[in-house]
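Appendix B. One record, verbatim.
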Amino acid sequence: MSTTVFVADDHAIVRDGLVSLLNAHAGLEVVGTAENGRDAVNEVLRLAPRVVVMDISMPDLNGIDAAREIRAVLPDVGIVMLTMHSSAQYVFEALEAGVRGYLLKESASVEIIDAVRALEQGRRYLSRKVAEIVADGIGERTGPGVLDSLSKREREVLRLVVDGYSSTRIGALLHLSPKTIDSYRSRLMHKLRVNQLAGLVKFAVQHGLTAPE
């Protein structure tokens, strides 16, 4: 069965190029496109594709707000931001909106297939350059010894959370209940002094606990 993909970008040449690139790979099928954020939300909710490839800067509704609306209704849809915006602020706003992949357009032709396949498998995908930008953009520090304070199990849970797995999936992988995984997640946030997923991603990238693709 093919992995269904939806493409949203306000530039026709980029949109058409992505469609051709994705459809050329076995097992991938583009089921729809949009040129603005509002149409993207409406069509994605109608078609329910497995993966959405979307720009941030689009008319009517930007990609980050569109991602929030999509994830509120279809939480299992994997969303890849493909954009020219390379600041850490945009990356973290996208992560907080539920985006699981972030690529720069300059590397699209090389990385987009790997990103789509990663999200289809339930994993997260930050390109190497984006991961470096994230690490360089970290303003706050968690203090010495924090990494050492994490148990082996807490590090395992942290890696899987940052990779985009749900509590149910992590529980199945580690033979623990989803409720126990939620407790680990809360404990990690308390230890690392963060209150959002983006904070966990920052810590994991900074300390080499998750490798960029």
